[in-house]
Amino acid sequence: MPATAATPPRPPIQLLPDLLISQIAAGEVVDRPASVLKELLENALDAGSSTIQIQLEEGGVKLIRVSDDGAGIAREQLALALTRHATSKIASLDDLERVGTLGFRGEALASIAGVARLTLTSRQRADSGHRAAGGETSESGGSGGTAHAWRLAGEPGASPEPAALLAGSVVEMRDLYYNTPARRKFLKSDSTEFAHCAEAVKRIALAHPEVAFTLAHNDRVSLHLARSDAQRRAGAILGDGFLAESRPLEVSAGPLRISGYCALPAYSRARADGQYCYVNGRFVRDKLLAHALRAAYQDLLHGSRYPAYCLFLEIDPATVDVNVHPQKTEVRFRDSRAVHQFVFHAVQRLLSTPLATAPAPTADGTGLAQALNGSPAYWPDGGAGSSTTSADAAAFAARVPYQCSLGVGEPSSSGAYLAFIDAARAPAGGPPATLPSPPADPDLPPLGYALAQLHGVYILAQNSQGLVVVDMHAAHERILYEKLKGALDEQQLATQALLIPAVFSAEAIDVAAAEEYAETLQKLGFELAPMGPRQLAVRRVPALLQAADPAALARAVLGELREHGVSQVLTARRNDFLASMACQGAVRARRLLSVAEMNALLRQMEETERADHCNHGRPTWTQLTMAELDRHFLRGR
Ligand SMILES: Nc1ncnc2c1ncn2[C@@H]1O[C@H](COP(=O)(O)OP(=O)(O)OP(=O)(O)O)[C@@H](O)[C@H]1O
Ligand SMILES: [Mg+2]
User: Fold this and answer.
1) Is this structure's pTM higher than 0.70?
2) pLDDT band at 130 (very low <50, low <70, confident <90, very high)
3) Which partner from 331, 450, 454, 617 sits 20 to 30 angstroms from 207, CA to CA?
4) Using CA atoms, how far apart are residues 132 and 113, in angstroms rounded to an integer?
C-alpha cells in the first residue's frame, strides 16, 4: 500500500538520560509540595530523629526545609543519597519483604532533585559511623563521629563542601518544578498547597507522638507539637472534641493489634476527612480497611455521614506488602480476610458496648436478651395510660424483683432509688433540703433514675454525675431495633395476638399480597387475614411492636414486600425494614410515662448494644454534669 511510504521513520530505541528518568519517576512520587514534604519527613523519621522542624515558603512551592536531629549522613554517602536506587534501608529481597522503615525504594531524593533544587546538609552522628560504606569515616574526628557537617547540592558535578550544623540533617528543596514549568501549572494556590502540607505533617505526627514537630509557613509558626503520648497527640491534632466523643480501642489477636480512637456517631462528618488509618506506623488509604470500618459503623450512621477515627494497625511486616504504590499509601495484606474480620469485629464491638457491663448470665444459662424478649409488658401496652403518672414508691418497690431478674437492679441501687423517690415525692413546696444531697451514690446505674418527663419528649434522670436527658422515642427506637434484630436472628420473634383484630381498608393489590406473602409475614411476626375484596384484618403482630398502630404496621410491611420483594426484605433490606418497624413501634412523643416505665427504659438502654445512638446516628441521651451546671449557675465563684 502506498500509504506506508509517507510514514516517518521510527526513532531508534535508546536509553534515557538519568535526569529524564528522575523527572519521569518524580511524576509518580512528587505530585505537589505536600508529597515532597512527606518524603522528607519519612526520611527524618527513618533516621531516628526526635525533633523535626519544617519551614515552608509560598505553600511549599518556593521552599521546603526539613531539619532533623537524626543519625545524619556521612560525607562520602551524600552523593549516593541523591542517586536513584540507592538506599541504606534494604539490601536484599528478604529485607524488602519485611521492611520496617518508611522508605525503602531509594528514589525519593533523586526524584525530588529531578524537579527542584535540592541541597543536603548533614552531620553524621558519632555512633552511626558504621553506616558509611566500607566502614570508613575518614573525616571523623577520631571518635567515629564527624568533625563537622557537609553540604551537597543536588546538581550534576557538585561535590560536598564543609558546612555548619550541630547534628542531624537539613534537607532543603527550593523552586519546585522550576525546570518543568508545565507541571507547575497544575499547582493550586499557595494556601491550598500549604493546607496539603499541613495535612501531611498531621498524618505523620499522629503516628509519631514521641517526636516533636514544628511547622512554620512564611516565617510564622502554624503548628507546634511537643513530644507526648498517643492520646495527647491525638487530642492536639484531631481536637479535644474528637477525643471527648471517641472511645479508645486496644485489641490484639495473635500477630494483629489495633489501637487508637473511634469517634461515636454523634461526631460523624459530612466528608471523609476525619479518617486516619495506619499500618505499622504508615498512613494508608486502604480499601479493605475502609470497608471494614464502614461496615463496623453501618448500623450507627446515616448513609450520607462519614465516621471519624484514628486507628493504628500493627501486623507482622512479612505479611503485608508495602511496595504496591509509588507513594506507599496503599498496602496489600497477605491474609486480607483475617485483617478485615479482625478490624471489623474490634471496632464493631467497641461501638456497640452497652453503657453497663453485661450482666452475669442467669442461673439457667439463658442470656439477658431472652429474658427481655419474653418479658411481660413493663413497657407500654397501649391501654395503661390512666395510671401512668400515679405510680408510687410502693408500686415501684413491688416491681423491683422484676428488675432484679433482668440483672440490672442492684439491691443497693434500688435502695438508693427508693430514698431518692421518697424525697422527690415530698409535698410540693417543701424545703429543698429534704432532697438527698447530690454527689450521689456511685452505685447508681449509669443512666441513674428517672426524675420526670419533659414536655412528653425527654426523660430527665439523675445519675452520679448529674442530670441525664434522654430522647425517649429515639432511645426506645434503638432498643426495639436491636431486639427485633436479635429475635429474628435467633428465630425467636415472639408474637402477640390482638384481642380485637384491627380491620383496615386496603388496596386490592395489598389484599392479594397478604395472601401471597402469608408465610413471610408469619416469619416477620404478622398474621393478616382478608376480610373482603378491599379489607384486611391484622390478627397478630410482633410482641415487641404491640404498642404501635397495627394497621400502619401492616401497611408498612406490605409496602416493603411489594416494593422490594420477599428475598430483599429478609436479606439485604432487612435492617432498614426492621428500623422502620422499630420507629413505628417506639413510644411516641407526648405519651405520658410512669416513673417506673421511664426507669425500665433507662435500664434497657444500659443493656442494649449501641443504645447511645438512634438508628440514624443521632444521640439518644446526653449528660449534664454537676460541674457543668455549677458553672452555668456560677456556683462556687
Ligand atoms: N534526613 C535524613 N537523615 C539521614 N539519612 C537520610 C536522610 N534523608 C535521606 N537519608 C539517606 O538517604 C537515602 C536516600 O533517601 P531516599 O528518600 O531517596 O530513599 P529511601 O528513603 O531509602 O527510600 P524511598 O525512596 O522509599 O524514600 C536513605 O536511604 C537514607 O540513608
Ligand atoms: Mg525516603
Assistant:
1) no
2) very low
3) 617
4) 22
- H runs (alpha helix) in 174-249: 181-184, 190-207, 230-238, 240-244
Whether the CB of 131 sits within 6 Å of ligand 1: no
Ligand 1: nearest atom to the Cα of 71: 4
104 CB near ligand 1 (under 6 Å)? yes
Supply 38's cell numbers: 512527606
- Phi-psi region for residue 21, left (φ > 0), alpha (ψ -120 to 50) or beta? alpha
Query: In 87-144, where do the E strands start and end?
Result: 117-123
Which one of 35, 36, 109, 125 would you pick to mutate in the ligand 1 pocket, going by the greatest count of ligand atoms within 8 A of its CB?
109
Confirm if 405 and 361 have CB atoms less than 8 A apart.
Answer: no
Q: Whose CA is nearest to atom 4 of ligand 1?
A: 72
Q: What residues are neighbours of ligand 2 (ion), with CB under 5 Å?
A: 43, 103, 108
Tens digit of each residue's pLDDT (9 = 90 or more) over 420-465: 445 444 444 333 333 334 444 667 889 999 999 998 899 999 999 9
Residue 413, CA distances (Å) to 405, 416, 435, 600 in order: 14, 5, 17, 14
Kindly give the pairing relationship between strand 220-225 and strand 332-333.
Answer: unpaired
Question: Cβ distance 618 to 474 under 8 Å?
Answer: yes
* Domains of the chain, earliest start first: 18-130+146-225 (3.30.565.10), 233-352 (3.30.230.10), 368-474+591-632 (3.30.1540.20), 494-585 (3.30.1370.100)
Q: How does pLDDT run across 403-424, given as a tens digit for each residue? A: 222 222 333 344 444 544 454 4
- Please choose, from the candidates 331, 316, 335, 321, the residue with its C-alpha nearest in 3D space to the C-alpha of residue 286: 331
Angle at 100 between CA 151 and CA 274, to 5 degrees: 95
